[in-house]
């Protein structure tokens, strides 16, 4: 997606170039790192971008990724395989391969959410939170490079993590959009669903992530809610819900992650003085 004459960093970062039958070449961009490791949602988006070239349907309605190996910034190969194509859905698999090893494994089913029909039954309400202007923006040069790609606004109750104050609730809520003005779509929902805001004091690498796209988001902010209820033996789940500005639910996610007790956390962001006051710091 172009912004004027420029290509969005996200689209540039997930771009793939054909390199053979069912194979693509990509460049893992370090601006999407958290610490020294690429964000898992970003890596999934690279794989989904290749599958979008391989499959006939436009929207990744279900994506599941496993992360058996660590990916480094730099060139990477993507192997995409069409498993089945039908009238309403198509399914494929993709592998991110670096130095001859499969580092990320993805299975995805695509459809066309623009033509989705059938009953709609919603038995849960969108949470009421303050609007973006009433929330707290995480800013500052000390923020990880990954966070600098976004305009992230947290509810005052959630904002303490940005200055190192954790509530212990296992719940983070707020708003997010790309910093450069790129509008959300179903490809970027894969990234936003991994944009977890958990208050973990240590590195928490993802083992598995599943994302369900439920609709095409309208331009504007995305409201996000991420919650963890169980941490057992260092393993935790995180459930995500994402709504667009109209209040439509556009994505659901769940990931399994492992707290790495020996790891050093990435640097935290900071808040402006006025915003720090709103958190009670």
How would you characterize the overall build of this protein?
This protein folds into 2 domains: 2-113, Acyl-CoA thioesterase, double hotdog domain (Porin, Beta Barrel); 132-278, Acyl-CoA thioesterase, double hotdog domain (Porin, Beta Barrel). The model is unreliable at 263-281 (pLDDT under 50). 12% of the residues lie in helices and 39% in strands. Strands 3, 4, 7, 8, 9, 10, 11, 12, 13, 14, 15, 16, 17 and 18 form a 14-stranded antiparallel beta sheet that branches. A two-stranded antiparallel ribbon has the order 1-2. It is mostly beta strands.
Per DSSP, what share of the residues sits in E-state strands of 2 or more residues? 35-45%
Low-confidence sequence ranges: 263-281
CATH classification, class level of the largest domain:
Mainly Beta
The CATH architecture of the largest domain would be Beta Barrel
């Amino acid at each position: 997606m172009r912004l004027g004459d420029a290509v969005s960093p996200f689209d540039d970062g997930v771009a793939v170039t054909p390199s053979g039958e069912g194979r693509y070449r990509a460049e893992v961009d370090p601006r999407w790192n958290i610490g020294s490791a690429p964000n898992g949602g970003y890596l999934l988006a690279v794989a989904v971008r290749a599958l979008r070239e391989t499959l006939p349907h436009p929207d990744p309605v279900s994506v599941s990724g496993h992360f058996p190996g660590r990916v480094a910034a730099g060139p990477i190969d993507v192997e995409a395989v069409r498993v089945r194509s039908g009238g309403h859905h198509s399914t494929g698999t993709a592998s991110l391969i670096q130095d001859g090893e499969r580092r990320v494994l993805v299975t995805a089913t695509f459809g066309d959410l623009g033509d989705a029909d059938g009953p709609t039954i919603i038995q849960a309400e969108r949470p009421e939170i303050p609007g973006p202007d009433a929330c707290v923006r995480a800013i500052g040069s000390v923020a990880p490079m990954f966070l600098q790609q976004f305009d992230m606004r947290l509810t005052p109750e959630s904002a303490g993590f940005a200055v190192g104050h954790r509530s212990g609730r296992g719940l983070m809520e707020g708003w997010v959009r790309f910093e450069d003005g790129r509008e959300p779509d179903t490809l970027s929902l894969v990234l936003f669903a991994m944009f977890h805001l958990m208050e973990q004091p240590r590195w928490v690498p993802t083992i598995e992530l599943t994302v369900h796209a439920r609709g095409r988001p309208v331009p504007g902010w995305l409201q996000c809610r991420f919650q963890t209820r169980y941490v057992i033996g260092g393993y935790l789940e995180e459930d995500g819900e994402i709504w667009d500005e109209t209040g439509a639910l556009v994505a659901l996610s769940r990931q399994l992650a492992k707290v790495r007790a020996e790891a050093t956390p990435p640097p935290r962001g900071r808040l402006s003085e006025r915003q720090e006051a709103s958190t009670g710091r």
